[in-house]
Amino acid sequence: MLLSRVLPSNTTLLPTSSSHARAAPLRHRHRHVPAGGAVTVHPVRGRSAMTVRARDAAPVLDTEPQPLKLLDRRTKLKIAVIGFGNFGQFLARTFAAQGHEVLAYSRTDYSDTARSLGVAFFDDQHDLCEQQPDVVLLATSILSAEAVLRSLPIQRLRRSTLFVDVLSVKEFPRNLFLQLLPPDFDILCTHPMFGPESGKHGWAGLPFAYDKVRIGDSDDRDERCRAFLEIFEREGCRMVEMSCAEHDETAAEIQFLTHTIGRVLAKLDLKSTPINTKGYETLLNLVQNTCSDSYELYNGLFIYNKNSTELIEKLNGALDTTKKELFERLHGIFRKQLWLPTDRIFLSNHCVTQMLLSRVLPSNTTLLPTSSSHARAAPLRHRHVPAGGAVTVHPVRGRSAMTVQARDAAPVIDIEPQPLKLLGRGTKLKIAVIGFGNFGQFLARTFAAQGHEILAYSRTDYSYAARSLGAAFFDNQHDLCEQHPDVVLLSTSILSAEAVLRSLPIQRLRRSTLFVDVLSVKEFPRNLFLQLLPPDFDILCTHPMFGPESGKHGWAGLPFVYDKVRIGDSDDRVARCRAFLEIFEREGCRMVEMSCAEHDETAAEIQFLTHTIGRVLAKLDLKSTPINTKGYETLLNLVQNTCSDSYELYNGLFIYNKNSTELIEKLDGALDTMKKELFERLHGIFREQLFDSSGRSSTKAGK
Prior knowledge:
By secondary structure, the protein is α/β, with parallel strands linked by helices.
């Protein structure tokens, strides 16, 4: 088997007596012969001989194990790197830096690169093997590994040579080595779980998996194996010993899943934008890192790891489930609207005054029109009356009146525009935060730290949290609005925004109040403000593109998007808007002014896509492992960051951004395309093997 599979094609075997030659262990007692001469291989214990005729016979080596004499070389190894491409050069650079002698072979001429690294390059495998390396390192692609190993003239090596692979799958090279190498060769299967990109700043902390498949018992052979592993230990790698089978089961998620996500996203042609979030930057980096590896590597991870097929089907199923959940929720909202009584369906208002009175006064208020000819269109001026009395709302300029009967009428506030007197207060604002949950508190902390006065309202009692931030907490919207805040900040969930805004007693505010939202979509709140707020209210739509998790170490460099939808012309109103934006400027935010429509088109990729990938991966129940790669750590962090936000936020990103439906369909299509490519390649390899085998069978039959 040894001679027939690995001797060069220019060698002819001439059996002199075949009765026992095939089974006989060989001892090469070679005298040097000129090229074109003949070498007689004498079987041990007087068994019959076999003559090997070769046109370019090299000095013949004894194939029985010989002492390695490593100990007196201070464990400096002679390492032959077979496959001197990008990854082979990456490893050789460190081998040479540690003082090991490095030989290299590749079909491509990398002699200049080798010379720059202090490596001896060979363009002939025979010449390299005659150097008797201590270690032969297989650093080819997965797909070419078998052909390369079969072509190696291993008869020119010591039979005690250590063979090592660094392929990204492990059961395949293990079985290949055991099948093709004689039993006296040592075998070490390894996998550096990093590459030229992830390891460019050093290997410290990066995982290195290995399995001592077959190591001889002698001290020298054990020392050689240890010396090779020490190369990676010295660089600070996290050494993980595990079986090849265990590696492949774990690596299917760690590597194949990471590469699949990266290559699927690459098909969406993602671009960097002025408002990139940290999560989106993560996806862009993942695309760059995975696609910097060859497609052959990715294809090999699929073909030669039996766990990959199951995993890609799980990924496809998780995406389908996520889509189903989103569309079911959308359908549920539509059904509720469809079956609401017609008198409860919110319709566009023909008049600001009617909308203001009918939708935002408390439920204990009754509207009694006294003369309807002009009352609906009249701007209102409120006069104060005692509690329990009635309020007569007198339209300005003598227009007809409307009486409001209320059991607990509060002091009435004039809602015509009043001077803000901001300039005399040094532009310190009184900001009312409506929705004092996690995100509202996150913003309020910075507002208060900059000296602004904070008022807070929420249906949940956050009075303790407000007190700790120096904010005044209100459990009644009317009481809060009576404080005349300069800014009303809507910080609710997207889904509850409309209901909360409709419930606000805005008649108790100055009509020049600035309304700001911080929702993750922008066209929806913009249209909502324009529909529900009287025309004298200022409107600023904003989106801090970060949150409590991504902004916990400060806001410097993080994007803040805003659109001045409607700001009054007076100096005070312009100064108020500027003062609010300066809060974020002072924290170092990257200020980006863009229209609400442009924001939503861009944010569909930036936010909805990031959240979708995170939530799809969450359904796979990914776990940290001893051999996490940087790419896999990226996916785990993405799951944690996206799922720390409420599902309501994610659902709102889908429902209230018209671009999201198209994007999730593109993602689904990209995954289907990737699956099709992988299975077509697998089918192609199978067909080649099938027809090659048929051709050989036909030839033999013809003979």
